[in-house]
From TrEMBL:
This is YncI copper-binding domain-containing protein. It comes from Rubrimonas cliftonensis. It holds the Pfam family PCuAC. It comes from the Bacteria. Residues 184-196 have a biased composition (Low complexity). Residues 176-196, 323-343 are annotated as: Disordered. Residues 1-25 form the signal peptide. Residues 26-157 form the YncI copper-binding domain. The lineage of its organism: Bacteria, Pseudomonadati, Pseudomonadota, Alphaproteobacteria, Rhodobacterales. Keywords: Signal.
Amino acid sequence: MLRTTAFAALIASPFPLALAPAALAHATLDVTEAAAGAYPRIAARLPHGCGGAPTDTVEVSLPPALAGARPMPKPGWTLTVEPTADGGKLLRWAGGALEDGHYEEFIFRGKLDAAAGAELPVPIRQRCGGAEVFWVEVAAPGQTPHDLQHPAPILRVATGAGHAGHGVQMAQALHGAHGGHGAGHSAQGATAGSATQGPITVSEAYARANPTPNGASAAYMTIETTGEEDRLIAAASPAAARVELHTHLLDDQGVARMREVEAIPLAPGAPAELRPGGLHVMLMGLAAPLEPGGEIAITLSFERAGDVTLTAPVRAVGAAMGHGAGHGAGHGTDHSGHAAPGN
């Protein structure tokens, strides 16, 4: 068994530092870089078992910067989640049978709460009956990861906003940081206000104009899926410093007060309608005023389908969009401190 002091010096792990003999291929992450504040979908990839034996348990130790991540259940495996002493999270898939000659991914997704430039080890542990492989080693100063037999996968926090997952990266490339004045098309090559990627189709998207510097706006759209049930769990845009999913709820006085929601569910045959006075994407801290006729890039992050990026045209207050666009203004709407337009 191998031991490494480099790993112990750089990260507190719930794993004992025992390692099986070196294998031919390493455990890896399919995403190796994401921006601070992004919601990357990450798959821990295992290319083999333990010395010929099938893998029956997989443990992924998330650092505190990913403590809010959620794992995806896997058929035939029992999933458990435990907090760790360093403020992180331990994800465990157990009871399965991944044959030595097969390949598998164990998926999780969550907000990356770390400073740009950070390098975050994500240790992975395999159990195969009585055998085990610990991918936990971290290179010491002056050492390269290639010198390690069982390196822990590393997630790097990008130094620029253009790496917030594949979708935001494409959005930044299309629009830079010019808010409502970008030109071009959505990442999928669709017309402005629509996009299709995999089972997800977004249509009738637009953002409300707001001439106020550093103000707020809202984006509306219809979202459909032809695949399995899914959830919209986050959104991002280079046009705003902060983007959240919101809805309106009536209080005891009949005033519609805006509240953040954790996710917006999707099901085949049941489109999610984001409309004034209801669900919407809230854009706060605008990088520049949103003028009618402009466009902004928006990336929608789905729990299962991943990221979808589209270009949303900017429309003036009162410019109708489909059904329901004229509702919301002047009807007792309270935005709880956000400088957003009424609808």
